[in-house]
Amino acid sequence: MAVLAPASGSATPVARRKRLGRTLSDRRTRFGLVNAAPVVVYLLILFVYPIFSTLMLSLKGEDGGLTLHWYADAFRGANLEILLTTLRISAETSLLALVVGFALASAISRLTPLWAGLAMLVVIVPHFISALVRTYGWIILLGDNGVVNNVLTDLHFPGAPFQLLYNETGVVIGTTAVMLPYTVLLLYAVMKGIDRRLLAAAASMGAGRITIFRRVYVPLVAPGLVNAGVLSFILCLGYYLTPALMGGEKQTMVASLIDEQVMKQNQWNGASALGIILLLLTFAGLLLLRLLKSAGEALRNRGTAS
Amino acid sequence: MPELKLNLVPEQSLVAPEAAAGTGKPLTVTALRKTYGAVTAVDEVSMEIAAGEFVTFLGSSGSGKTTTLMMIAGFCEPDSGSVVVGGRDVTRLAPQKRGLGFVFQQYLLFPHMTVWENVAFPLQLRGVSRAEQRRRVGETLEMAGLSALARRRPRELSGGQQQRVALCRALVYRPPVILMDEPLGALDKKLRDQLQTEIKRIQRELGLTVIYVTHDQEEALVLSDRIAVMRDGRIDQFDTPRELFERPRTPFVADFLGAANFLPGQVEQLTSTHTLVRLDTGGVLKARPRPGAEGARVRVAVQPGRLVLCAPDDGFCTGTVETVTYVGTLVRVTVRPAGRAATEPVRLELPVGRAPAVGESVGITADPENVSVFPDAEDGG
Predict the structure, then answer these.
(1) Which of A287, B220, B347, B373 could form an S-S bond across to B56 if both were Cys, CB 3.0 to 4.6 Å?
(2) What's the pLDDT tens digit per position in A35-73?
(3) B42 inside domain
(4) Inter-chain CB proximity B125 and A207 less than 8 Å
(5) Domain final position from B246, B277, B294
(6) Are both B241 and B104 inside the same structural domain?
(7) Which chain A residues have a beta carbon less than 8 Å from that of B14?
(8) Both B164 and B191 in a single domain?
């Protein structure tokens, strides 16, 4: 996620050219360039060119000139609502994936290696199955006569059966399940790295379980929480399949809108604009990650003031 | 250190109220026992530690010293026995309810907090007001010479500095007893010496009760009021360093603390004032009186530093100087007893001025007060 590389220092053009020349004459640099060439060509053809042409498409007016018409269109009426829905569902999903992922990862990190390995397998293996199959699995589970509702009805749970499909609940449940392996893996890695004796140290000086969790454990996991949250948010933004199958009319997300514009309306320019907006939102997410990290750092430093 | 009042919120009171005096509390351990499967890690350990006393558990790894400490701290539950701190039975309490201080070998500072926050943490747990926190953390860091580092993170500090912070963190809330598990084990020799002096100074100034675990006998001797020498889950002897050194109760203690010479022999005469032992090398050695029978096989233990050279045939042993090694202010000398070639050389530590020459024929003698006699059957560890 090193998208936001620090800006290089401002040097005069002459000095920069000199430095470039010196760097190029370095044998290791030349060797590195030769090695990197295939990847650079690959990325130019399959990554930079498509994004660039999408950008051009999104700026092209009906008369062939440049226009922001498609962007204006995306932020108007129903389209704006879809954009906001996408943001809302992504936020809800990543929050839920974080909470569930946190509970799972912290439980797994306390197991013995053998059981931890097995539990990890259970979390990750479903990811190997096609998302389509998994989504249909959820539909079977959550339908009006699905397993969940049948069990709840049999238990005379008040209010059962619930509407769990073709609404926001369904979308959030289904998408959370897709995001879970990412959050669990990221959080597990961080939690494994925490020296559990630190918790014992806190207990030795009188901290109870809740205090240890709040003052020691969570702060130590915090960087992982930020990473996992932003990652699942970004993945959700452009996620298509589950929202399309498990959501209703009101849960249309940007990806579905793009699909509709391309497949049904043959409206490539509008779809391109939406794609670019998604890309910008992703960048915004990464920027947010950076800001959160430096804000956290600043906050902690301020707390030190004696 | 001026008066330090413990400012506890009543329902959070972690320390017995008497602790407000700011000094250490007494601690009593009774018949503590811990087994892991078939292995007995700690076997019926009992001891009484007075308020303000510095006690060290000394032993090699597997002697049960750390397990005993962990049971006192509450990190490990004993199978039987009890731990009483300042009159309060804490045997079944969780570590956080015991209110003790603990200093770990690995420092275990909170990496997400600064030095200041680390030391303030236990005070915050006790609901101490911000102003009081500021005063006490400031004083404690000052005492440890850490004031300039208050805003640093633990990872920006050296090992010695980190351990000082860990010490401050355990001191700042005035626990009735501070437990230290080989706190200087990860530091180099010079730093250890320096921190030993500091720990001892702070302990004396504040009248702290400290239980210290180490496998380094020199460290134990420097720091402790009393040392519990542990072996195989039991206490071999619990005494002042001087007593341990001069009157070891078992061959193990004599060997572990003083690296004693062991000389086999036979009791020739037993009186109320002394014991005479005829050594297998031929000479006769006078030792402290002890119970037993004349004619019994024994082993005599004398520390290298308690042996003195004399004219040949004047001492209990005559031999040839084999090696002479200078170690700073001392000379280590080994003497091969004449006559029997099979016996081990006798080791001596002499002041530099009294060093003999290699190959010289010498006699060895010792003050009977410094000679211990053990039955032959007891194993020397």
Answers:
(1) B220
(2) 888 999 999 999 899 999 999 988 888 787 888 888 988
(3) yes
(4) yes
(5) B246
(6) yes
(7) 206
(8) yes
The tokens describing B11, both together, are: 């329902």
State chain A's mean pLDDT as an integer.
86
Q: B260 and B361, same structural domain?
A: yes
- How many domains does the structure of chain B reveal? 2
Instruction: From B199, B265, B218, select the one nearest B58 (Cα to Cα).
Output: B218
CA dihedral of residues B201, B236, B368, B376 (deg, nearest 10) = -160
Give the architecture-level CATH label for domain A76-295.
Answer: Orthogonal Bundle (1.10)
Chain B residues in contact with A301 (beta carbon < 8 A): 151
For residue range A222-264, what is the model confidence (pLDDT) as tens digits? Answer: 989 999 999 999 999 989 888 888 888 888 888 888 988 888 8
Per CB-CB distance under 8 Å, the chain B contacts of A303 are: 117
CB atoms inside a 10 Å sphere around CB B26: 17
A187 neighbors A101 (Cβ within 8 angstroms): yes
- Considering only the beta carbons, identify the residue of B73, B112, B126 that sits closest to A206: B126
A–B CB contacts, 8 A cutoff, strictly below: 70
| Pairing status of strand B27-36 against strand B88-89 | unpaired
Q: What is the pTM of this model?
A: 0.76
Give the domain CATH number at B143: 3.40.50.300
Rounded to a whole number, what is the distance in Å from the CA of B191 to chain A's nearest CA? 23
Residue B4 lies in a domain: no
User: Chain B: which residues have CB within 8 Å of chain A?
Assistant: 14, 73, 75, 94-97, 99-102, 104, 106, 108, 110-112, 114, 116-117, 121-122, 125-126, 134, 137-138, 150-151, 169-170, 173
Q: Do A203 and B117 touch (CB under 8 A)?
A: no
ipTM given for this complex: 0.76
Handedness of CA A44, A48, A54, A55 (dihedral sign): negative
% pLDDT > 70, chain B: 92
CATH number of the CATH domain containing B277: 2.40.50.140
The mean of the pLDDT values for chain B is: 86
> CA-CA distance, B237 to B47, in Å (whole number)?
11
Could you tell me if residue B2 is inside a domain?
Answer: no
8 Å CB contact of B173 and A205: yes
Q: What is the dihedral of CA B260, B262, B267, B273, to 10 degrees?
A: -10
**Domain extent at residue B272:** 251-375
Residue from A190, A196, A199, A204 whose CB has the most chain B CBs within 10 Å, to mutate: A204
Average pLDDT, stretch B323-349? 83
